[in-house]
Design a protein that fits this description.
globular; about 15% strand; binds beta-D-glucopyranose; about 750 residues; six-stranded mixed β-sheet
């Protein structure tokens, strides 16, 4: 740090006292309308203050030991706010009460000591519950949650998250991820809502709509869609490596989730950190200006991802130096740089304005958006953490919901009459790498970026072993510590324990990872785990394989060894109990795969493939069994010949629970466009709904569509193409044909 900083800070503190009249002016917002308030404030700001508003700094830059712990170094904080005019911070982790103190201190410096008293905008990655609050309730990660096909559960996830986050003064959540999960090697696959654009969009929308300040909270809450665009399908599968996605595919598949979210009110957007079609996204005018602001009419705040302007130079070699990269990013349309640990961005922007390479008007455009966001969030009136809703953080009610989310999301992929295995059916041998782990159930982005060991997980949380012992009784469960199948002693122990059991439950999958830390060379499940499944099968006892993983690791050699397979993904704090209740039959599984489970590492094709492509997955998109059976009947459509593309049409179908236990059926409605000049996918999801059915019960479901919407597809510049022809609406076993003839 500059040796003169303490002196500068003292002078600034004195000066800031003198300028309190300005602050009062800035804060006196009730007398004007928002636009006028923002303009007046903008008019008082120096160039440096404006650039400060465009800068987001990691809290680790101002903490005592440079870590994410909630212990502030006040000198560094004052330097960040009073010298560099920083307007936004992100990311730290700790106890709820410490968060309140920490943010109160930061806001106090901003509103009471800075010249204009502009409050800070504080961001956090609460991507599966309040995962950076020690007492926070850890919910399933998005991939797992999306397998519920239940937007109500996503809504509950958002409500729990905001209620455990907002009172701490964390108003900006970097969620939801709207990237398409269609490259299973990509290490952030589990952060997506799966491979289908509609599912990703509707789940994202449910999240945004429910991520609202609950009544009585003084300031608002805002979500951030990420990562615009094309982040999730890098050619190598590795994080932040180049994606080559034809414009046609961008328009048809990658853009729709973002469009749904923007139309639903998404106000901030984080850019993809990688390269798309040869350009670093952060400096791509095509992405920010043309697609996001132009085509999608997005008028909110555009934020870079972490240190991305530096990455243009250091990682992508997309500019000779950071000054040039900053210029390109500003030209492209970036409003705020997640600069993190350095203030260079500010120097570069200042130089560019002073050199006349960037006009101050351009800076004003971004600052206006940022100030308006702060205004709309109520931060000028209520900059400090409210401390409200603290009692709910990690409450029993929230834990119960977390378990229900996991129960509604876990997918039964295979069942040769092995499950359910009710209490009293016999003894269970429980083993595999995750059988007694909390870390694996909660995954990464849990208290720390990479997750934490069991010793730091909530004491009250149950592992699968805890939950099974609680439910079946200790005497019914034999635990097998994970071991090496090549070790004869372990093999003997396994064989001997298996002899005494009636069922083997084996956990398999992956240890937690975040971002590039999860890069892999081979999608196959590791050999050791595959061999363990082989050993289990050799025992002759029925085997249940539970998959706890962030992406579909190829398990094809192990699949025949298991009589039942459950995909649990990363189910969160209720995962152990949810799995136990499904295994026992107390809960009837109702999840369906929101992605394709590949059979091999090289054949990676989504369900919406082209007619000329093969689709031979191990388990297809939408796969998922139940302990009951359902039938579909009486399909009906209002129009079989459509000539007015704007007149709403209705599809009706009756779904019946034909079995003996209650269940929840996921009804998926697909459209098949029989031909198209730009060849059409074999089918594409156009609606989904989850319906509760008692044994023997039937329900009539109705879906409304605008033919022009579902029958058309975008061309490569996003213009809808509507062609005459035949379309099939497919749901369950039913197919209805509709013809469109233009008037
Ligand atoms: C991730 C973002 C995240 C940001 C802030 C980045 O590394 O890509 O998803 O929001 O960090 O923590």
């Amino acid at each position: 740090m500059n040796k003169n900083i303490p002196l500068i800070l003292t002078v600034l503190t004195v000066l800031s006292g003198i300028s309190c009249r300005n602050r009062r002016d800035a804060g006196d917002r009730k007398q004007t309308d928002p636009g006028a308030f923002v303009e007046r404030l903008l008019g008082q700001m120096t160039l440096e203050e404006k650039i400060g508003q465009m800068t987001q700094i990691c809290f680790s830059t101002v903490t005592a030991d440079g870590s994410k712990k909630l212990v502030m170094d006040e000198d560094k904080l004052r330097e960040a706010i009073l010298v560099h005019h920083t307007g936004s911070f992100l990311s730290a982790s700790g106890r709820a009460a410490d968060w309140v103190d920490f943010i109160t201190l930061a806001q106090r410096v901003a509103v009471e000591e800075s010249r204009l008293g502009i409050p800070l905008l504080i961001g956090i990655d609460h991507v599966h519950g309040a995962n950076y609050v020690d007492e926070g309730t850890i919910l399933p990660h998005n991939l797992t949650l999306s397998c519920s096909f239940d937007t109500a559960l996503v809504g509950t996830a958002a409500r729990i998250t905001v209620s455990e986050t907002l009172g701490l003064g964390l108003v900006w959540n970097f969620a939801p991820v709207l990237d398409l999960g269609r490259n299973p090697a990509w290490p952030r696959f589990y952060e997506t809502f799966g491979e289908d654009p509609l599912c990703c969009g509707e789940m994202g929308l449910a999240y945004i709509r429910n991520y609202r300040a609950p009544g009585g909270t003084p300031y608002g809450a805002v979500t951030c869609g990420k990562h615009f665009i094309g982040y999730s399908d890098p050619k190598t599968g590795r994080d932040r490596t180049p994606a080559w996605i034809p414009e046609q595919a961008l328009q048809e598949y990658f853009i729709p989730p973002f469009r749904i979210a923007i139309e639903g009110g998404m106000r901030t957007m984080m850019l993809n950190s990688g390269e798309l079609n040869g350009e670093p996204v952060v400096t791509s005018g095509y992405v920010s200006d043309h697609l996001l602001r132009g085509q999608l009419d997005f008028d909110g705040v555009v934020l870079t991802d972490i240190k991305d302007i530096s990455k243009v130079v250091e990682m992508h070699a997309g500019a000779p130096d950071e000054l040039e990269a900053t210029k390109l990013a500003l030209e492209a349309g970036v409003d705020m740089s997640m600069a993190c640990n350095a203030y260079d961005f500010q120097d570069y922007v200042k130089t560019l304005v002073e050199n006349g390479e960037v006009r101050e008007k351009r800076i004003d455009r971004s600052v206006r958006r940022i100030l308006r966001l702060k205004y709309d969030l109520g931060l000028f009136d209520h900059p400090f953490p409210s401390g409200l809703m603290m009692d709910g953080i990690g409450s029993a009610e929230h834990w119960q919901s977390a378990e229900e989310m996991a129960s509604g999301s876990i997918v039964l992929l295979k069942n040769e009459g092995i499950l359910p295995f009710p209490k009293g059916s016999g003894k269970i041998l429980l083993g595999g790498f995750a059988a007694d782990s909390k870390t694996i159930l909660n995954g990464a982005w849990t208290y720390q970026w990479m997750g934490v060991p069991d010793s730091l997980q909530p004491a009250a949380m149950m592992t699968l072993l805890d939950a099974m012992e609680e439910y079946y009784g200790k005497e019914a469960i034999t635990f097998l510590t994970d071991g090496d199948p090549a070790d004869p002693v372990f093999r003997e122990e396994f064989a001997q324990k298996a002899r005494d059991c009636d069922l083997i439950v084996l956990t398999a999958g992956e240890m937690p990872y975040s971002e590039f830390k999860g890069d892999i060379d081979d999608l196959s499940l590791d050999d050791r785990q595959l061999e363990l499944a082989g050993m289990a099968a050799e025992s002759g006892k029925p085997v249940v394989l539970i998959l706890l993983e962030g992406r579909p690791r190829v398990i094809t050699p192990a699949e025949p060894m298991a009589g039942a397979i459950l995909f649990a993904g990363i189910p969160g704090c209720g995962g152990g109990r949810a799995l136990t209740r499904i295994i026992s039959g107390e809960v009837n599984p109702s999840g369906r795969l929101s992605f394709t489970y590949p059979a091999s590492t090289n054949h990676l094709v989504p369900y919406y493939h082209k007619a000329s492509e093969q689709y031979n997955p191990l388990f297809p998109f939408g796969a998922g069994l139940s302990y009951t059976t359902y039938s579909y009947s009486d399909p009906e459509i209002t129009d079989t010949l459509v000539s007015d593309p704007s007149a709403s049409m209705k599809l009706g179908v009756t779904v019946t629970n034909t079995g003996t236990v209650a269940g929840k059926e996921v009804v998926l409605v697909y459209l098949r466009d029989r031909s198209g000049k730009i060849t059409r996918p074999v089918k594409k999801l156009i609606a989904f709904r989850k319906v509760d059915l008692a044994p023997g019960e039937s329900k009539r479901l109705e879906f409304r569509f605008i033919p022009g919407d579902i029958f058309s597809y975008p061309d490569r510049i996003g213009v809808p193409v509507l062609e005459e022809g035949w379309f099939d609406l497919i749901t369950g076993t039913e197919i209805l044909a509709v013809r469109y003839v233009a008037r």
